[in-house]
Amino acid sequence: MNAPYQPGLENVIASETAISYLDVEKEQIVVRGYDLIELAKRKTYLDVTGLLLDAQLPTTGQRSALEDRLKSEYGLPRDILCILQALPPHSNMMDVLRTGISALACFDAELEDRSAEANDRKAIRLLAKVPQIVACGYRALTKQPFVQPRTDLSYTGNFLYMITGREPSKMEETIFDRSLVVYSEHEMPNSTFSARVIASTLSDIYGALTGAAASLKGTLHGGANEAVMKMLLEAGTEADIESLISGKLARKERIMGFGHRVYMKKPDPRAVLMKKALAVLAVEKDRTELFRMCAAGEEVMKREKGLFPNLDYYAAPVYYLLGIPIDLFTPVFLAARTAGICAHVMEQHESNRLFRPRVLYKGPRDLHPEPEETSGETGRTG
User: Fold this and answer.
1) Which residues have a Cβ under 8 Å from the Cβ of 139 and sit 6 or more positions away?
2) CA 382 to CA 259: how far, in whole Å?
3) Pick from 172, 135, 153: which is nearest to 46 by CA?
4) HSE-up of 152 (CA within 13 Å, CB side)?
5) Which residues are catalytic, by number?
6) Integer Cα distance of 339 and 156 in angstroms
């Protein structure tokens, strides 16, 4: 083999796509031709969902129709709720979510239909039900009663309501919706790549999303937002964040929420947007100390390591102030990313080639087994 080896497939082009692209030089996350940050400021999560699935921004009427389709698929089969309740209380919520998505496949009559039309319908079902699994799964683990979805609320408002049990304010809903937009799609991270690899075998969309959930569990990917919030709570105050981070750096510990495989020399534009959202939310919730602590931590990492915050660093305190339990930060990430992942699976199925990479072999060669001693047996097979 003459192909160069790139550890972690860094900068290796793995697929052609018309869905999204990280243009680092222009500091843009391009989604179907649009700047994701501009979309987050001007459009809703459902607008972006329509863009991802249908390759064009929906009109007002089309967005309403999309929301109606989603609401018609609300609710989980009773057996799925029973499965969630049967899981042990110590379960990791990403394992709960992965299990729920996998089990949900068995209830879809169109599971084995790979047509574009069927995949679109399955994507709608997943977008409707994954938030329900997130909320109901957590309530099952914590022995709380399930909260039924409300069709009188917006899609985003209902998602937050099912998690917290209270109707969100307009400001809370807007900030949460903006966070869902910036989490919705990001080119080819590990979870999306995992989903496309699975889909390339012509496996179903549920299996691909289940694999993405398993990938997103890792702290080097989606689990980082939970680790960020735990670090902030450990520090407690603006005065203590610098000493905490400095101590971790001295012990060679990884500081979650900083650095990115793509954004190495420039800030993650999604983090910049979430920092502004946190500033607004902190004033509203009378938690400006939390904002100042985050800003101080950002300055320490910039000074000591030359690293910029990624999305997880500022999304974590935003979710915390919205009343979302820390254990649900990563599941919410997956729920938001479901739109992008489904778009990638649909694209993979429409123009498929099986992923089958090679390796750079580093093991021994030319070894030969010693002949086995025989005991007189004949006709041995194997």
Assistant:
1) 145, 146, 147
2) 52
3) 153
4) 3
5) 221, 260, 312
6) 13
Inter-CA distances, 1 with 12, 14, 146, Å: 16, 18, 55
- The amino acid occupying position 115 is S
Same fold: 15-218+327-350 with 224-321: no
Ranges of each domain in the chain: 15-218+327-350, 224-321
- Do 11 and 120 touch, CB atoms closer than 8 A? no
Measured between alpha carbons, how far is 291 from 245 in angstroms, rounded to an integer?
Answer: 16
Q: Which residue has the tokens 């042990």?
A: 88
Tokens of residue 76, six digits: 């989980």
CA 257 → CA 36, 230, 294, distances in Å?
20, 11, 11
In CATH, which of 3.40.30.10, 1.10.1240.10, 3.40.190.10, 1.10.580.10 is domain 15-218+327-350? 1.10.580.10
pLDDT band per the 50, 70, 90 thresholds, residue 380? low
CA–CA distance, 301 with 258 (Å, rounded to integer): 8
What's the confidence (pLDDT) of residue 261?
65
- The CATH superfamily holding the domain 224-321 is Cytochrome P450-Terp, domain 2 (1.10.230.10)
Burial of 106 per CB tally in 10 Å (0-12, 13-18, 19+) = exposed
- Cβ–Cβ under 8 Å, residues 66 and 48: no
Amino acid at 276: K
pTM value > 0.70:
yes
Q: Which amino acid, 316?
A: A
The pLDDT tens digits of the residues spanning 50-109 come to 999 999 999 999 999 999 999 999 999 999 999 999 999 999 999 999 999 999 999 999
Q: Percent of the chain at pLDDT above 90?
A: 85
Beta bridge partners of 35: 30
DSSP secondary structure letter of residue 35 = E
